[in-house]
Structures are given as C-alpha cells and as structure tokens.
Amino acid sequence: MASALYLENFLESIEYLPPEMKRNFALIGDLDQRAQDTLKEIDTCKKAYKEQVAEIDQEEREKQLKKIDDLFQKAKEYTDNKVQIAVQIYEMVDKHIRRLDGDLARFEAEIHFKETAGRRASMSDQNTTTSSKRRSSSVTKSAKRRKRGNSTHSTPDNPSEEEEPGPSGITTPPPVGTFTTAGTDVLDMPVDPNEPTYCLCHQVSYGEMIGCDNPECPIEWFHFQCVGLAAKPKGKWYCPKCEKKK
Fold it and tell me: Which CATH number fits domain 166-246: 3.40.50.12280, 3.30.40.10, 3.50.50.100, 3.90.25.10?
C-alpha cells in the first residue's frame, strides 16, 4: 500500500473527530456550569438552614436537610458525567493514535521489505558476475600451474623466453560476499554454491592470499591469517602440507 493511500485513509477516519470532540467539550462545559450552579444553591440552603435551625421544627429541619442532600447528589451526578465524557474523548483520540501507529508500522515494514528485496537482487546479480569471473580465473591459474611445472625458472644468465611469476606473489582474488577489513570473518551472505574454495579453512577467497610454490599443491592458494603470515615472505614459500612432504 502506497504512503498516499495510508494518509488518505487516516485523514478520512479523523474527518469527524474534531466536530465530535468540539461537541463533547461543549457538553462538559455545560455540565460544569450546572455543577457550579448547584454548589452555589447548596451554599444558599446551608446558610438559610443555619439561620432558621433554632426556630423551625424537626419536620422542617429534615425537609431542608433532604433538599441539601439531593442537591449534593445532583452536583455529583453532573461531575460524574463530566468525567465519563472526558474518558470517551480520551478513548476516541487514543483509538486513532493506535491506528496511526499500526499504519506506520506496516508502512515501514513494506519499505524495509522492498529495500531488502532490492539488495538481495543486486547481490545476486553481483555474485553471478563474480562467479563467472572466478571460474575463468580458476581455469587460467590451473593452466599457468601446468605451464610452470613444465618450464624452467629464469635466471640472470639464462632468462627464459616467457617468465611466469610464482604463486608466492600476493594476490587478492575477487571476494564473494562481504568480509571484515582483517578478512577473518566472512559475514552471513548468500554465496553461489559453485564458488571455488581455497586454503586450509575451505572458504572462498577474501583479503590477502598467497600461492604455494609447489606446482603439485592440491590447494594452491591460502589466506594470510590461516597460515600465520602478516606480510609476503621472501623467496619461495610452501604451505604447511607441502612443507611436511618436502
């Protein structure tokens, strides 16, 4: 439901609220005036009773006391009616406030749902593109591995015709999903199940990675922190498994 429709429905619901409240407030004012007039009448009756109490008989006394008591009951009734109308006004306004709160909550939920759906669609497209690039990169790296295993390394006196950089060079493969700046915690995010995994932790690539100089290494690429590296080592580097085999 669009925001305009929420607003239109709410304005329609409160269309008769101001006139109704005005009528109730006028009624409260009228009841208050009646209560004040009754209290004044009670004061007059009390004063007259005090002045005549010594001269009138028992029956007349009881009659005047009953009149004063009836006036008190009437004033109390006026006051109770005022309170009841005030409560009705409060409940009427509170009902519209609760409805507005509910509409706002539903509207915010719809906005959040649309934004989440848009982000998921964007991430899905990005992951699809990244997956295609990663598979292409994986095939290229495998081909370079085979080529490096069949060729000799260049030296200053006998340079090879085509020098291939060893995998000990640091690289940062395209990341999948979102990761922290240290690259240690991959956040929970949809990942293409076809994405290749690396390292001893069997996770997708992220952060800085290093390649093993053993051309037969089954894993090839490792995260710095998983193999205890803080910077690129000098010379050739072998992963823990290949180091043991040596």
Answer: 3.30.40.10
